[in-house]
Design goal:
2 domains, 120 residues, alpha+beta, single chain, elongated, two-stranded antiparallel ribbon
């Protein structure tokens, strides 16, 4: 079972952070697979979850996150604040999805013809 599925609400993050001696942000990054979980911490998580989440599950979450393809996104920016993406596309997307992304950018920027690149 994934740690993310085991965690029901914020109280679980807080409880895990206290028992592991880690910050809530670190526990959250373990749950989403953003950080690799050290083996000693993984054993503690296995004990806390009564074996529902194992080191293998934690490693799988990390590998799954690392294997995601790169994405490009268009989002509004005001000062240093970035807003939710208007549109995005991954590098492994189909050609039609990539063209739709370029068209979205053209519409947002007010370019009538879209991309005039020789390959477009």
């Amino acid at each position: 079972m994934k740690l993310l599925n085991w965690i029901v609400d914020e109280k679980h993050y807080e409880m895990l952070s206290i028992k592991l001696g880690k910050s809530v942000h670190t526990v959250r990054s373990y749950a989403y697979g953003h950080r690799r979980v050290p083996e000693n911490v993984g054993l503690e998580i296995t004990n806390i979850t009564s074996g529902a989440v194992t080191q293998v599950d934690l490693d799988d979450a990390y590998i799954e996150f690392q294997n995601r393809s790169t994405q490009f996104s268009l989002c509004y920016k005001r000062g240093l604040r970035l807003f939710q993406p208007v549109c995005s596309v991954s590098t492994s997307a189909s050609v039609s999805e990539k063209k739709a992304f370029i068209e979205c950018i053209a519409q947002e920027l007010g370019v009538a013809e879209g991309c005039n690149h020789p390959t477009g």
